[in-house]
Amino acid sequence: xxxxxxxxxxSSTRAHFGLLLFTLALILAPWVVGxxxxxxxxxxxxxxxxxxxxxxxxxxxxxxxxxxxMGFIAFYAVGAYLAALLSSPHLLAQxxxxxxxxxxxxxxxxxxxxxLAALLAAGCGLVLGAPTLRxxxxxxxxxxxxxxxxxxxxxxxxDRPVNLTNGPxxxxxxxxxxxxxxxxxxxxxxxGLRLPSVYLYYYLxxxxxxxxxxxxxxxxxSRIGRAWMxxxxxxxxxxxxxxxxxxxxxxxxxxxxxxGGVSGALFASFQGFVSPxxxxxxxxxxxxxxxVLGGMGxxxxxxxxxxxxxxLPEALRASMGPLQQALFGQVLLDPEIIRQLFxxLALILAxxxxxxxxxxxxxxxxx
Amino acid sequence: xxLMVFMDAFIQQLLNGLMSGSLxxxxxxxxxxxxxILRIINFAHGDVLMIGAxxxxxxxxxxxxxxxxxxxxxxxxxxxxxxxxxxxxxxVLIERVAYRRLRHAPRLAPLISGIGVSLLxxxxxxxxxxxxxxxxxxxxxxxxxxxxxxxxxxxAVTNATALTTIGIALAVMLALLVLVxxxxxxxxxxxxxxxPQVASLMGINPNRIIVLTxxxxxxxxxxxxxxxxxxxxxxxxYMGFLPGIKAFTAAVLGGIGxxxxxxxxxxxxxxxxxxxxxxxxxxxxxxxxxxxxxxxxFIVLIAxxxxxxxxxxxxxxxxxA
Lengths: 367, 321
Fold this sequence. Notes:
Oligomer: heterodimer
Helix content of chain A: over 70%
Largest sheet of chain B: 2 strands, antiparallel
Strand content of chain B: under 5%
Strand order of the largest sheet of chain A: 1-2
Order of helices and strands of chain B: HHHHEEEHHHHEHHH
CATH architecture of chain A: Orthogonal Bundle
Order of helices and strands of chain A: HHHHHHHHEEEEHHHHHHH
Number of strands of chain A: 4
Shape of chain A: globular
CATH class of chain A: Mainly Alpha
Number of strands of chain B: 4
Number of helices of chain B: 11
Radius of gyration of chain B: 20 Å
């Protein structure tokens, strides 16, 4: 209980203490998990970190500004495809003139890809937000859903007339991340420790999660963050107080989208492959479920939601398969089905019984 | 000659558009009635359609296995009625579980729980009917019927399934219109949409009306689902998503909360989609073909919401049920 209050109280020293604890847990987690379950489990953690970045981005849009974005995964897709185009042989194969100019191939550094992904996704957020932000909440949700689907349909079909996205087949051979001359795609000896690739990526992702987390905390307490929450609570009143609600909402869209873009670029490099099927509506809903289950607008809650919904289905996948095999002699429940069951239940039960989430923001204080 | 070919394509696309449009209209009615009364988007409505089609499929299989000598039309009719009854119950159940407690919650709460229900229904369908598309038997005669074919051999081709679909959809919509505008129940429904408190003072039980509204919407969705599956020859757990979104688009296009608007919007969207896809393909030499069919619906949706959120027949949203 003391821990909970420590993390939830708005006082800044306590929040910093919470951040410190979280950092410590972040550093130790792969060793504990890796020791217990091996590298596949560390890989699951890597994906959980990507989801945390996404959910923190969506939390700015849904949690702070109160705008339900159901096409959030589109920004993840934009970041991922940007990274894939800039660090795979695909573009050069399509444009021989470019290939002649770059004899060593296109291997853009991650230092360039990440800011570009953030910028491009933020730009997409602005383009999407500008015409739609006048709409009421539930209409906005459906329109953003439409935008998300349009992006996916474009990714699927932009292999003609010019082959940009390679259609449903997707883009393969995306370079792994190279950081300070170290290739994160292979195991490395560091400080006398042998670190497999999933650990290296884990620490890169963890560093970025901390960066985004820090940005979120600062934003939340800034003038902008408080303005967002005023808009969420009562848009008319916020406007009457002199807030430029339109610009503030656009800003929320752009910043949330930028985090999504960064996460997507990392996903592409980590996976080495992108295809339109990674960016379906169900992924948007999954991220939304994490934010809603944990607690909209409350950072520790959002992280809890991600950990629960990213890790639990994996844990069930690992344990239920053999269990069913032993009990019934065959696997009756597809793990993918179990995952979807969880997300569906999380959304309904959260809305019915815990509308503020499992770990809600303390009432009255700055969330 | 070129004009004749152009006209042939036009008539063909018109028929296709009418067929899908009448289905969108049936589903759109469910969205619009619920929105009119509760002002919520029933996100799970498309999945009720999917469940309806799959239940219909199972009933057809059962009937054909038990009484092979039963005429095909009768099998289809029985399956449709049973599926409609089941989906009416399912829709009522959804209202009770996911929406009733949230009637006075913030606007986004019922939308989010509706998304959850949609996921659960898809999960249930995967469990019962597997993840693979199931063949849906074609029970109506498949011989091509030629429309407007003159001596020159031009014209368009359709079949009994498509024509029956258009006919039944239009008949059902007319019946619903009569029900809502003429009957006692219809008057009560409009009263609840206008103002639930005053309606209940007049001796109407709003909950009963809401339950009936969901039941009618569910039954119409099941009907649309079975007709859709019969036309495309297959049914699967994800078949409800796109028709659901498109039907919602149709409801918004016609003016949400307005029954005639939903019908008009559905037919219009079907035509826009069919003609747009057909001519876009011809105009670009096949580069932008039917792959982009679904984009049309989304663009129409976004355009309507941005430029005329009240739709074609809708009045100002705030005052309108």
